[in-house]
Specification:
Elements: E1 2-3, E2 8-11, E3 15-20, E4 25-30, E5 40-41, E6 50-58, E7 71-78, E8 81-84, E9 96-98
């Protein structure tokens, strides 16, 4: 993993990572390779835009307990800001915030 900027990390295999403040963890997307399965990227590591939306499902702390579903993080990353959609299961659902710097995460 290599730093492209304070906001992005490069991972082998044509992938990028950004820190998600809603999940308090990194999300990884593929920007190089064969479509489908690749996101568009504006090439700006300081104010990235990825298209289409980023949808991440994972086993959150309550997943599987009493039938609880997996956690969901669904967002648009545009010009260095992350807009969390209303289907997110974390506290930032419906909010838009700046992508945090890795060292602040």
């Amino acid at each position: 993993m290599a730093a492209l900027s304070k906001k992005l990390r490069s991972v082998e295999g044509g992938r990028l990572m950004f820190w998600c403040p809603g999940c308090d963890g990194a999300h990884m997307i593929r920007i190089e390779g064969q479509s489908p399965g690749c996101w568009g990227y504006n090439g700006n590591p300081d104010a990235p835009t990825f298209t289409p939306s980023v949808l991440v499902t994972y086993n959150g702390p309550d997943a599987g307990i009493d039938g609880a579903p997996p956690a969901i993080c669904h967002s648009f990353v545009t010009d260095g800001r992350i807009q969390f959609l209303s289907d997110c299961t974390h506290a930032l659902a419906g909010q838009t915030v700046d992508l945090p710097n890795w060292e602040d995460a």
